[in-house]
Each structure stands twice: as C-alpha cells, then as structure tokens.
Design brief:
This protein is of the alpha/beta class. The chain is 33% helix and 16% strand.
Length: 577
Amino acid sequence: MTTADTADTAATPVLDARSGAHSGAGSARPRTYHVRTLGCQMNVHDSEHMAGLLENAGYRRVEDVPEAAARATDAGDGGADVVIINTCSVRENAATRLFGNLGQLAAVKRERPGMQIAVAGCLAQQMGEGIVERAPWVDVVFGTHNLDVLPALLERARHNSAAAVELEESLKVFPSTLPTRRESAYAAWVSIAVGCNNTCTFCIVPSLRGKQRDRRPGEVLAEVEAVAAQGAIEVTLLGQNVNSYGVGFGDRGAFAKLLRAAGSVEGIERVRFTSPHPAAFTDDVIEAMAETPEVMPSLHMPLQSGSDKVLRAMRRSYRSAKFLTILDDVRARMPEAAITTDIIVGFPGETEEDFQATLDVVERARFASAFTFEYSPRPGTPAADLEQVPVEVVKDRYRRLDELVRRITHEENVRQEGRVLDVLVAEGEGRRDGVTARISGRAEDNRLVHVALPEHLAADDYDGGTPRPGDMVTVRVTHGAPHHLIADSARCARRLSAEEAAANEALSAGDRIWYDDGPALFEVRRTRAGDAWQRRQVESCAVPEPDTAPVRLGLPTIRVGAPDMGGRSALGQPRSL
C-alpha cells in the first residue's frame, strides 16, 4: 500500500453510487453513507462537506434509505455501506477511542459485503498509514487538507481491493468551495478561515490544520446569503481564531466589519462566532456585537488557565487581568451576555497556587458554562516533553474545578428566572422532550431552554400551532436548572388543585411543570427556517426517481469571485463596513 499522489486521485473515475453496482448482489438501491463526527465545530462543518461530496457522487444518507437503516448495529454504523469517522486528536485518548470504534466496525464489515470504512480528520492527518497498519480492514484514510478526494478514494479502494491513503501537507482546496449537506435547515456553519498561527505549547491543531488562511470577505458573505436563501436564519462564523481574521489580507479590523455585514444580510436573524483568542480580541469587535442586533450576546472566550505563570508556559499571549478586562468590557456593553470558556487543569508545572489562581478567575468571571479538561500530553507538542503533574493531583483539581463551575452555572441559570426569551426551536436538543411534553431550543445568549407546550398541543401538531424546528417561540423562564433553563410559562396562570400540586411536586425536577406567578406566555412566530425544515422532512421521505444522473443538492452557487466588502451583495443588499 502506498500513499497516492494528487495526480492519481484526479485521474480516478468517480462512481455514480446510485448505480447500485457495489451495494450487494442484485441490489438496485443507491449506496448509503453515515458520518460520525468526533471533536470540534470545525470537524462538524468538515463532515457536512464530506456529506455534500458523497451526495454529489450519488450516495444517499443512510437515514433516508429505510432498507439500509434497518441494518444498523450497536457499532455505530447506521446500517450504511460507507462509514466515515471524522476524528479529533486534541485529547490523549483519541487514538484509543478511534481504534475501539474501528474494532466494533470490523465485525459489521465481515457480515456486510461491499461495506467500506473511511477515517478522516486530525488523527488521520497525524497517523496516516499507521491507521491501516493497526486496523487493516480500513479502506480509506485522508486528512484535513484534502476533503475533496473522498469519493475518488472510495472508488479507488473498491477497484484495487486495497486501502487508499492520501494526505496532503497543505491545503489544496478551500473546504468552503466544496458541496455541502448541512445538518440543519435553520442554522448554518460558515467558515471564515482555516488553520491557526498561534503556537500554544499544548495544542497539536496548528501542525494538523496548517497556518491560518482567510477567505475573502465577499466569499464569506456570498455563502451567508446562499444559506439565507435556503431558509437558514442563524449563522455561526467559524475559525480556529476568528478575531485574527483579516491579517492575511492586511485588514486587522476585518472581523468586526464582517460581523456587521453578516448581520445585515437579508433573512439572517442570528449571527454567532467561535472561537476568538483573548490576545487578539479588540474593542471594535465588542462594539460590533453591541451595535448589531443580529449578533447574539454570547461569547466563547477560552481562558485555559488563571495563572499568569502557566499562561506564559502555554504561550498564551495574554494574562488573567487582560482576560477579565475583556469580560468586563463585554458586559458593560451587553449586560446579559452569556460567556463560556475552556479550561485546562494540570498543565505541566502547575502548582496548587497556580490552580488556586484559576479558581479565583472562574469565581470572578461567572461563566455561563465551561468546558473543563484534564491536561493530556500530545506527541509533537512542546508541553509533552515537560515534567507532568501527578495524575492523582490532576484528577483532584479537576474535581474541585468541576464543582465550582457547576455551582456558578446553576447560580447564573437561577438568575435568569423571570426573563422573557425568544427561543429558536431546535431539533435533537431535548432528549426527553417526548416524555416531558416540551420542545427545546436556544435563547439569544445560547443557553439551552426546554419549553413546555400548552396542554392542548401535541409535539408534532404543526398544523395546530406547535412550533417547528427553526420557528421562534417567546416564553418566560420559570426555572433555572443546573445545566439548562426551563420555560413552562405556557402552563402558568392556572390554579392547581391540591391533588394536582402534590402530584406535580412528587415528580423529579426534569419531569415536573415549573409554575410561577406570572401570566401564561407562549407566542409562536413561524419562520422561513421552519418552512425549510418542514420541506426537508417531506423530501427525506420521498422516493427518489430511478434515473442515472448524479445527485445534485440544488444549493445556490457560491461564487468564489464574489464581490469584496466594498460592493453590493449578490442579493442586492448594500454592504456598509
């Protein structure tokens, strides 16, 4: 097995997977795919591109082919003919997790003729052929810089009956130019840059994703307009370090301008972004957030450590005082902003005093939530060669930090009680909605909200007034739970009998209705995004026509040469930056 070059890939014919030629003996159904995504939002968006590439090549999502989906096993294959695992390498156990998943899939593959397994993402970029050496039943391995080759590699592996491995050292095709099958009809990721120019000593990502490359503003806005035309009303601007956007083409104020411009795109109601870096976060971004109604009052600001000594060792070019000043400035302009963060515990050399400094910053910062991690050394990073903190010390510190974060998160959620919120109804956010007669979605500040339906509405009674995913509902928060908000205002303003009250109180916190003394409130605004979601539901149940043409997504074309920020948008809206 050899690592093929790009020229070979370009010459490989791509199968129209709807021919059914490799779906099993006598089968006329299309080949199906299932993408499993591990890791960050960048991986989620990359998976959307993989899905788009496969659908353009004639594959169908396994969920849309009941005959195939019925074969699903506990191995996470979904019943598909092609299973792609999009990997992350940030955590130490990433490889263990991957090979555990691959081991489960091996048994499925033995029983499913023609099944293929592909491994993509950061761990694929890092390990390359080492994946096939440890798991020889894997058919395809490709990295972060060449998503576009996936259909060709699958066909090559079938044709040669051998694994196809292809990695590029640098980006060849900007991912945003590739076809996309977006997971959500109402919200979209829009990449503004790939790669990272920072040199954090704990992070493997820059060596796997490469140096930062910015898209031109006109291209970004053209994609925002395209997803708005599809029905999306929320976009999240995505990059490893979004507020360094523009450095590549000489405009350090480009990100603030981009926020304002994205908010002005017709049809877009909510703009979010992730993730910024505290060292590059500037006042013009805060001003753009505060002055652009469509930019949501939510901010993910990675702290990593509250100790200045540890921040220096991490090569994080800011200190705790600067970090807290940013938070103060954001809250001065947007008092109700919800700020979240990332924190690493047990970085090499961290003392108890350093850890206490982190606890002190967390107490002062009052984060709405925090993603907390035990430090894990990543081979190839400078920090991996430093003296490590004993495991038992790291675990104890993690426990103490987790307890503090949980307490503050709960207190901040309780503080939301009584607030009236506009919630964008989402799909799949509430795992127990069917049991509790609720729907779920995100508030403007990105907090998760579980919303009780009026007693006369069923969860799927869309014609009767139940909001669809993508619709907006105005409600009042009646309870702040440890990890979410509950808005049961639709059920308020009615007096319960003693028996009803007692029965309600006897239920667990998640199952009971949380009444308050306010009036009933449940106002639904049906949106274009809800319409788009409903159309997708109808289309996913439709039987495809038995033609031989490759499947096309019907997405608006995003022009790579779209006008830059000084001109007018493709929808004719002025861009004032």
